[in-house]
């Protein structure tokens, strides 16, 4: 009898653990920490503007400071083409769901600034023309307005 209850408990726990996606975790953390969410749709191994966005903005210390300062939660919905770069099945499913909800046109790169409930505050289609500092400052200005 104890074994049956343990098995049921583990099965329920595993379902709940899988149901908690990266985006749901970001929303929860953003809500708890009073942060914004940056959702970025990219093709990390085929989209040149996506690669430039990550190199020139996302991977900079200026941008990373936004997460350190609890201004921002960052979620990357990546759609690589190469087999060696494919994410897990769960991540693929989540990325497809995010694309269905936020990127129905299939734009790459496509970046959205969201509040903790997932409401769109600002979008960037393609590679932002501003520097990492300007991009980060724009996010900070939205953070200060909320």
TrEMBL record:
Residues 1-19 form the signal peptide. Keywords: Isomerase, Signal. The keyword Secreted does not apply. It comes from the Bacteria. GO terms for molecular function: isomerase activity. InterPro entries: Thioredoxin-like_sf. This is Thiol-disulfide isomerase.
